[in-house]
């Protein structure tokens, strides 16, 4: 969040059980933590740090809300099993990321995509450069259904989305692919600055 103060999640949360990630899911969580740190090294660093989600058979794995990006652990991740316009159903001990609905509806809009990668790329946000293959969205209040709908709509036809005053979103067939897209556009906007 660049401009707006963080006030927590903006939906109801229903806890529906424990989350015990499989060995493979634990590996994916570690990769998400590492990829988040890689974007921090590129300057995408603030107290929130964005968020990454991966799709599993049961739902999507995403970090809990309020977890600091520098000290993320496997236990900071939860499983979102369902969402609608008011409510998010979650397995795990913690409230899911305030952007859980956005991730959920983007995964719904693009079933072939496995990873939704959201970062606060300040270099891209400051740039006046426009690329025609990139979706540029007007500012929305973070974590709202309005912003989730707007992103899910353009996600049908774009792999990279810029949310004015907020951040960027990449859609990847896996975590590495999504990080590569984030990196590719970071470099592309940097070169054209
Ligand atoms: Zn954000």
Automatic annotation (TrEMBL):
Keyword Metal-binding: yes
Database matches in Gene3D superfamilies: Class II aldolase/adducin N-terminal domain
InterPro entries noted in UniProt: Aldolase_class_II_sugar_metab, Aldolase_II/adducin_N, Aldolase_II/adducin_N_sf
Keywords from the named record: Lyase, Metal-binding
Keyword set includes NADP: no
GO BP term (any one): pentose catabolic process
Domain of life: Bacteria
Any one GO molecular-function label of the UniProt entry: metal ion binding
SMART domains recorded: Aldolase_II
Residue intervals passing through the bilayer: none
Domain Class II aldolase/adducin N-terminal positions: 30-193
Gene Ontology cellular-component annotations: cytosol
Protein name per the record: Class II aldolase/adducin N-terminal domain-containing protein
Organism: Candidatus Falkowbacteria bacterium CG1_02_41_21
């Amino acid at each position: 969040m660049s401009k707006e103060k963080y006030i927590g999640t903006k939906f109801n949360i229903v806890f529906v059980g424990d989350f015990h990630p499989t060995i493979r899911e634990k590996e994916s969580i570690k990769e998400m933590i590492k990829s988040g740190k890689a974007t921090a090294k590129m300057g995408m660093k603030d107290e929130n740090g964005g968020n990454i989600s991966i799709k599993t058979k049961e739902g999507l794995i995403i970090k809990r809300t309020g977890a600091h990006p520098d000290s993320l652990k496997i236990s900071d991740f939860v499983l979102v099993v369902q969402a609608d316009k008011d409510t998010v159903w979650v397995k795990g001990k913690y409230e899911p990321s305030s952007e859980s609905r956005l991730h959920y509806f983007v995964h719904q809009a693009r079933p072939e995509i496995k990873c939704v990668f959201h970062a606060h790329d300040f270099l891209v946000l400051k740039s006046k450069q426009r690329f025609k293959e990139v979706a540029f969205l007007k500012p929305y209040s973070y974590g709202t259904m309005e912003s989730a709908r707007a992103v899910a709509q353009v996600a049908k036809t774009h792999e990279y989305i810029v949310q004015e005053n907020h951040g960027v979103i990449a859609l990847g067939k896996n975590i590495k692919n999504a990080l590569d897209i984030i990196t590719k556009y970071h470099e592309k906007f940097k070169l054209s600055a």
